[in-house]
Design goal:
The chain folds into 4 domains: about 15-205, Beta-Lactamase, CATH 3.30.450.40; about 205-315, 2-Layer Sandwich (Beta-Lactamase); about 325-475, Alpha-Beta Plaits; about 490-750, EAL domain (TIM Barrel, Alpha-Beta Barrel). The strands form 5 sheets. The chain has an 8-stranded mixed barrel with strand order 19-20-22-23-24-25-26-27, surrounded by 4 helices. A 6-stranded antiparallel beta sheet has the order 3-2-1-6-5-4. It is of the alpha+beta class and about 750 residues long. The radius of gyration is 58 Å and the shape is elongated. It is about 45% helix and about 20% strand. It binds ligand C2E and magnesium ion (2 copies). One magnesium ion binds near residues 521, 612 and 643.
């Protein structure tokens, strides 16, 4: 079978195909007008087949087909390619004789096409979308009149296509309109929702939006703006006068800030208090920016918010941060801020600060409980407040208060201090009991910064406390000099510690009856570069400084256990070494473990160690902690001695509370023995107490044989003093442990008795 001839393609094929596509007619349903036309064509030309064919890129599709079964054929079989390519009517009277189509299967098949006449159709001139064609299975002739008739039929078909095109366009537009309408109505719903949400949010956040024209003075407000101003929605608001709602001096400040922003074309963000139209005082925050961003502009827009609640909250928080919750007085940071202000406003004039410390306030807490303590503090606060109306009274913490007197009151600060002490001294009703308190006051009047004022007042307060209770002291340069000397001294001793200039000397303790060596007490010494050896009295500041005394304590413990090991190894019968512990060592959580670790490291028995504490370690907040730690040491087998016994002001009560193994009678009693009957009676009493408590007694500071005899006669078993040995370096001590110390006159006849 021969292949069909290649069909001709019109010059405007691309435009033609696009137009066909735009017409959106291919594969649409049958339409009666088109069907009627094909039927009419068949009748008119007395042919079996009349088609309205549309020729697409690869097929011809029949919009109407009279006398034909197929809906479409491949394009290469289409006779219609010829009228389309030529743009004219094409007549093939006998297909078998026409080389263009003779081999077309539609021709060669049984009962195939013999006659064809087709005329182009379309919606615009020169663009043929298809044809109206008539077909017969018999060869035929087609007259000029016939051709004209077919052209007329084609014109009718073209007008049907145009009608279709209009319908399609109308439908597309309608669909588009419908789509737009849907979008618009959805948008309208969304916008309405958004507006409602925004309005609601604006209402909750108390926000309003505004736009202004600075030239015309027009001011446009959102509903929210009217609401936050307490105004009827729509009330006219003139631009300038709307500033009048703000209170001075904020009005001027806001006007100036906004004016500056206007001049520069920059955004502004300001806030200030205002009175609303319905008479409420509110704080507003206003932010604005030029509509034409970044240029000087006449049109501005922004928002305004009622920030009254935020302001209130902030004020409350600031107040809380500045107030002492117990007394309601200013707290430390507020006091410092007030002092800062006072210094600023003093214009080079002296500023006065008084620091007040309650004497023995801890006793109130201990005796009556913390609630009662707080009640006392409140009463004291109100008494201090009533002393001077405009003074700033602050509680700095614990039992410490401060007063910054009113500068405008020309009062004598010393007189004020006197009245403070007097006011605090008046009995305070507390839980039905009368509480008696005292106070010490430090005063500074100076031209200096806040921290110097605080430091100087502190020094004055220390000096007042040193001078006894119920005393006030002014700051003097000498106090500063002394404080600086103390600081320098402390740093010197830190240096001494680092340079290994500290050493430990040992003082012997003997059995008074026999003069036999009993034990040693370790005493720290400072050997200066020039060889002079200083006792702790010369560097007492070091033992008072918590950190330094802790470090010294550690050094002494290290040295003592090392020495004990050395003596043990050298078979020196040293007995026991007593080590003095300071209060700050008890604050160190690792004291007990540190001592036991050292004993363990040096393989020493706990019984070779004794710790000495003075009564001051029992005083203060850490008493129960000290009791606990001493208990742990005793349970571990380390003895505990109470040093300087009898000099504290509650010695007996401490004995009741804290268990000790040894009482050390203070030198002050020993040195006066025999002079008055009182000392003798005291020592005798201590001896009796120790007997009943089963504690040992060591008398300190025995310088004469007479003292030794007295003590022995009064029942005191051990003694320590220059009579037997002064504190000395370890190498000199070994010989003391051998034999008996015989520096005693062993006669009772010197004893004259009380
Ligand atoms: P303390 O523990 O009561 O030590 C006894 C003090 O009396 C020692 O003074 C000693 O030299 C002195 N003394 C002993 N016998 C006599 C005497 O017959 N006559 C006179 N006038 N004095 C005598 P020192 O060594 O100056 O120590 C003074 C205080 O320093 C000690 O009193 C103790 O409280 C403290 N201390 C000494 N070493 C240390 C230490 O390593 N740590 C701690 N925390 N304190 C220490
Ligand atoms: Mg001691
Ligand atoms: Mg002592």
């Amino acid at each position: 079978m021969n292949m069909p001839a290649k069909f001709p393609i019109p010059a405007n094929e691309a435009a033609r195909l696009k137009a066909l596509d735009d017409l959106a007619i291919l594969d649409t349903l049958a339409e009666p007008q088109f069907d009627a036309l094909s039927k009419l064509g068949a009748r008119l030309f007395n042919v079996p087949i009349c088609l309205v064919s549309l020729v697409a890129v690869d097929r011809q599709w029949f919009k109407a087909k009279h006398g034909f079964e197929l809906c479409e054929t491949p394009r290469e079989l289409a006779f219609c390619n010829y009228p389309i390519a030529s743009g004219q009517i094409v007549t093939i009277e006998d297909a078998t004789a026409d080389p263009r189509v003779a081999s077309n299967p539609l021709v060669t098949q049984d009962g195939g096409i013999r006659f064809y006449a087709g005329c182009p159709i379309g919606v615009e001139a020169d663009v043929s979308l298809g044809t109206v064609c008539i077909v017969d299975v018999q060869p035929r002739t087609f007259s000029i009149a016939d051709q004209e008739a077919l052209i007329e039929l084609a014109e009718v078909a073209s007008s049907l296509l145009k009608a279709h095109q209009r319908r399609v366009t109308a439908e597309t537009q309608a669909a588009q309109l419908a789509g737009q309408a849907t979008i618009i109505s959805t948008q309208a719903v969304t916008l309405a929702t958004q507006k409602r949400v925004l309005d609601q949010a604006a209402k909750i956040a108390k926000i309003g939006a505004w736009e202004s024209d600075t030239k015309s003075g027009a001011l446009i407000w959102s509903d929210g703006m009217f609401e936050i101003h307490g105004m009827e929605i729509g009330t006219p608001v003139p631009y300038g006068p709307h500033y009048n709602m703000y209170l001075e001096p904020h009005r001027t400040r806001l006007k100036e800030a906004v004016g500056r922003a206007h001049a520069r074309g920059e955004p502004f963000d300001v806030e200030g208090p205002a009175i609303t139209a319905d008479g409420r005082k509110r704080w507003f925050r206003v932010v604005g920016a030029p509509v034409d961003w970044g240029q000087p502009s006449e049109r501005w827009c922004g928002m305004k918010q009622d920030i009254t609640e935020q302001k209130r909250l902030k004020y409350k928080l600031e107040t809380l941060a500045r107030r002492d919750p117990v007394t309601g007085l200013a707290n430390r940071s507020a006091c410092q801020a007030a002092l800062q202000d006072a210094v600023k406003q003093s214009a080079g004039q002296p500023v006065t600060l008084l620091l007040i410390d309650l004497d023995d306030f801890k006793g109130v807490n201990d005796a009556h409980g913390h609630a009662a303590g707080d009640q006392c503090l409140r009463q004291i606060a109100s008494r201090l407040r009533s002393l001077q109306a405009e003074a700033l009274v602050a509680r700095l913490g614990g039992d410490e208060f401060a007063i910054i007197p009113d500068r405008t009151v020309d009062a004598d600060a010393g007189e004020l201090a006197r009245r403070i002490i007097e006011a605090i001294r008046r009995p305070i009703e507390c839980n039905g009991a009368k509480v008696h308190l005292g106070a010490s006051v430090g005063i500074v009047t100076a031209v200096c910064g806040v921290s110097d004022l605080m430091k100087r007042a502190d020094l004055a307060l220390y000096s007042a406390k040193d001078a006894g209770r119920g005393v006030w002291r002014f700051f003097t340069p000498e106090l500063q000099v002394a404080a600086e000397a103390k600081t320098a001294h402390i740093s010197q001793i830190y240096q001494a510690l680092a340079n290994r200039q500290l050493e430990v000397h040992y003082q012997q303790q003997v059995e008074l009856a026999t003069g036999a060596h009993a034990s040693f007490e370790a005493l720290v010494r400072w050997r200066q570069p020039d060889g002079v050896v200083l006792a702790p009295g010369a560097f007492s500041a070091a033992l008072d400084d918590p950190e330094l005394s802790r470090q010294i304590g550690d050094y002494v413990l290290d040295e003592v256990v090392r020495q004990a090991r050395e003596w043990t190894d050298a078979d020196v019968a040293f007995g026991r070494i007593a080590v003095n512990l300071s209060a700050s060592q008890f604050a160190d959580g690792s004291l007990v473990a540190g001592i036991l670790d050292r004993l363990n490291t040096y393989q020493l028995q706990p019984s070779c160690l004794e710790v000495e504490v003075t009564e001051n370690v029992f005083i203060g907040r850490n008493a129960s902690l000290v009791k606990d730690k001493l208990g742990q040491l005793r349970r571990a087998g380390i003895r505990v001695a109470l040093d300087d016994f009898g000099t504290g002001y509650a010695s007996l009560s401490h004995l009741r509370e804290f268990q000790v193994d040894t009482l050390k009678i203070d030198r002050s009693f020993v040195s006066r023995l025999g002079r008055t009957s009182v000392e003798t009676a005291i020592v005798q009493a201590i001896a009796l107490i120790s007997l009943s408590l089963e504690t040992e007694i060591v008398a300190e500071g025995i310088e004469t044989a007479t003292e030794a005899e007295y003590l022995k006669a009064l029942g005191c078993r051990y003694g320590q003093g220059y009579l037997f040995a002064k504190p000395m370096p370890a190498p000199e001590c070994a010989r003391l442990t051998r034999g008996h110390n015989i520096r005693m006159v062993g006669r009772l006849d010197v004893w004259s008795g009380p």
